[in-house]
Amino acid sequence: xxxxxxxxxxxxxxxxxxxxxxxxxxxxxxxxxxxxxxxxxxxxxxxxxxxxxxxxxxxxxxxxxxxxxxxxxxxxxxxxxxxxxxxxxxxxxxxxxxxxxxxxxxxxxxxxxxxxxxxxxxxxxxxxxxxxxxxxxxxxxxxxxxxxxxxxxxxxxxxxxxxxxxxxxxxxxxxxxxxxxxxxxxxxxxxxxxxxxxxxxxxxxxxxxxxxxxxxxxxxxxxxxxxxxxxxxxxxxxxxxxxxxxxxxxxxxxxxxxxxxxxxxxxxxxxxxxxxxxxxxxxxxxxxxxxxxxxxxxxxxxxxxxxxxxxxxxxxxxxxxxxxxxxxxxxxxxxxxxxxxxxxxxxxxxxxxxxxxxxxxxxxxxxxxxx
Amino acid sequence: xxxxxxxxxxxxxxxxxxxxxxxxxxxxxxxxxxxxxxxxxxxxxxxxxxxxxxxxxxxxxxxxxxxxxxxxxxxxxxxxxxxxxxxxxxxxxxxxxxxxxxxxxxxxxxxxxxxxxxxxxxxxxxxxxxxxxxxxxxxxxxxxxxxxxxxxxxxxxxxxxxxxxxxxxxxxxxxxxxxxxxxxxxxxxxxxxxxxxxxxxxxxxxxxxxxxxxxxxxxxxxxxxxxxxxxxxxxxxxxxxxxxxxxxxxxxxxxxxxxxxxxxxxxxxxxxxxxxxxxxxxxxxxxxxxxxxxxxxxxxxxxxxxxxxxxxxxxxxxxxxxxxxxxxxxxxxxxxxxxxxxxxxxxxxxxxxxxxxxxxxxxxxxxxxxxxxxxxxxxxxxxxxxxxxxxxxxxxxxxxxxxxxxxxxxxxxxxxxxxxxxxxxxxxxxxxxxxxxxxxxxxxxxxxxxxxxxxxxxxxxxxxxxxxxxxxxxxxxxxxxxxxxxxxxxxxxxxxxxxxxxxxxxxxx
Amino acid sequence: xxxxxxxxxxxxxxxxxxxxxxxxxxxxxxxxxxxxxxxxxxxxxxxxxxxxxxxxxxxxxxxxxxxxxxxxxxxxxxxxxxxxxxxxxxxxxxxxxxxxxxxxxxxxxxxxxxxxxxxxxxxxxxxxxxxxxxxxxxxxxxxxxxxxxxxxxxxxxxxxxxxxxxxxxxxxxxxxxxxxxxxxxxxxxxxxxxxxxxxxxxxxxxxxxxxxxxxxxxxxxxxxxxxxxxxxxxxxxxxxxxxxxxxxxxxxxxxxxxxxxxxxxxxxxxxxxxxxxxxxxxxxxxxxxxxxxxxxxxxxxxxxxxxxxxx
Lengths: 371, 509, 311
Fold this sequence. Notes:
The complex is a heterotrimer. Chain A is an all-alpha fold. Chain A contains 15 helices and no strands.
């Protein structure tokens, strides 16, 4: 029955994805864009040249990092919607650290910058985690509020203390920081593209997270607290502490994603840098079944969607907001599908239906194909 | 809710079958009830009694079989339909909305009182008082349900079904939360009601079955194994029919090894969830090598006591001593490390992590010890081996130790919890309702294990609602009432009557 | 200055008040809808469309009314969608809510960019000063000199109270959120009640969103709603699921907002971004302090109802 369970699960996820695509197609029709043309561009456009392919991976890196953090949080029983804000705080911390120590060698500065990013995101998330553990504040609401607050912080710093002195001189006033010193940058993997060593870091962390959750006592504690908080508490696990720790870890990954984007892609802090990775990361985590093995392909798939959506914006004039629409329906479809995934009834009925189908086709084959 | 068009002279169930995933809850069940008759539906937990009655009440749909009233076949797609025909059910867990008044609760179900922008509470009140007077069930229609005691809430449930025009009452374990005296009271009332109503009541307490019913039907594993007149059989015969074999529940034959006090509660004051003082100066002492039974109607502080002793609930004042060390308000982890075992009340949510595998659940308290982990890394091999050993020793029935804990039957989940706790050889074990909802075979096993712990020199605090269990197993019996220990008796002097009085708060001189 | 803060604060609270009252019905019935934000976005955009398109036509005087009607209809439909996902499919309500929010926000933004593209204004709704009362010095201008939608929103407070506590439907809603098995055992369809509550909630959220674009800002932009939907959900906790408490919360927030404006107008040196942050910080503070409130909430809030679930 186990092979069937896997196939059943995959079929349900696929149906959910198709339902989402259909819903998004309706919106596309409403704005006069052709759904088929749009989807074709999205799914084939990026593969036209090596740059497109590397761009998919460039988008996938922060998605993987954010999704890893989200998985840790969800599995530990705490919902983190604040990855957007945590990324921004991570970027501030990372940029600040890099700009403050321009003379340091790469071997020391780069890790420090990345760690600063993780710390920034982790501490920001820690606020929501502590509020939840100590005061029972709903973490969805608090992390969403913290997103808005972080956005304001970020703008304040970019327009004020962290603005590139060069901008002030030339009078253009674009809110962006100074360019990071070379020692703080992640090297390019493929020359002529934007793909950087952050990809390696992301993949290494995937393995680390898998190990952490299923092979260490820390991971055991988090998973127990997330699966059944009461029983975990009765077993002596400090559940409240777990919640805070999980939230901080989750934020650290988001902050790291931000630092990686600055160090690897943009090389300076700019506006709209997080461009929705925080929210997209949630969808990737859900799509990847909250497991590193599922997150990597899900992130690549989403990277494809993002690059493709960019292309359709330029070619077919489909506004960038469409990606939000797609994310929204994907979330709705996946969480709806979960009921069927975990539902023993539905599985049994599907198994019976499938068995009848096979018996039917078998019988038809015997009689030579005539029903 | 209309009152039934015609009185019920006969109810017949024929060939009722109901499946849940992986379980055949009802297997071709047939039985009947005549007017004014009391039918007892008996069986172990999990035998299918509640499911069958839920089908009759319109909450579940049968996969096969028919229900007939007065010779004509009927179907109950919704509870409304059952009510319309005069069938009313009082569930074990009351179906009352706590923050609404009695009148509002009744009005919720009386559709005739639902006008567009107006709710006719006056009429609801009138009906309640009418029924209340007629059947001598005193109640205050404007009281909020959360203010009422368990016995009073049960009265509300009865009145509610009568207001809806019930002519056949189904009662699911009606005495599970009552003292022996309240139980006798209820049985009297029900007997008087049979002048107008038929009654089906579910119970596993054979003495009540004898006292109240005319006929008895016994279910085992979803099938009817016996259907006859109560008067013709003794409780022992019925018990044998219920379990399918002679069950000899182990008895405590000794008088306690009289070891030193290992677990003590001194003048304990603990607050309950609603802010009231659940434990009010409680004194208790558990010795090594004995089983101390704690008898009492649920809701008198048992849960809060267990939680205070295990570090799960804050003690406001007083002391908890474990092995001569002051362990008041220490963390659960500290209590566990000191050698205190705990079998909690809610096995699904407090005892195991249902999504975790059986082997993970078996090391839920020890995963961080040297036996199962090397510093921070889990020793998965050792964990698996441990699970296999315990599975054999405790006869845990599961497909494999990698199966999810929540997929096991109630009795097997309890065995997992027991295995985990006993394998740690706790010096003191707090067991709360350890055999609730567990079939007799597993019950036998669990009782044997508890006695075994006692023999090995450990102390067991047995908190239970089943007087028989407590009297069979304990060396001494303490009775808890309104957060204090009223009296401690030795097992030799404890009788059902004495305990019943104490449970109701009557302390003799 | 105090007069300005107060007289601005009252209409500022309308969108929050309407959305939050709607969310109150949702939560009382046992479902919390974080997609309220997305519904408000859709309501703001769709409400804005009729006046934009019918500017110069014969139907112009009724355009605003159409706008409100369309916004409410959209709210009902989105509430229905959310009900399908969380009640019928029993999905996790928090995440589903975020999904709905993204969807609403995204669709509104996409359609806006495609059909309108730039910033355009709409005439808004004229004020209806109440004849005698608006002449009362100080209070008159604060309370009685507003457009009809404001009055409607405030009238919704006692109306909601009556509906929730004195009508059969309100009784069913409260039962569905606190003890759904009891309601079920008496033949009330818990799922149907929840669907109805979500539709009412959606209608009110859509109305609130339309108020933002039609009356308050008199235009539409991507970031118009700016988290008010989430604040509305938080207000339900803060107001302890009662209309009066929610009114208090909504006024508190809008006063914070008008305070922010007044500070800027008065030229007090305070970084713009920190002023904008104020309402969100306030929400967190309020959630942190409202600890006791959680204990009195509908006990089955967030738990999908499954009759065949064996307890």
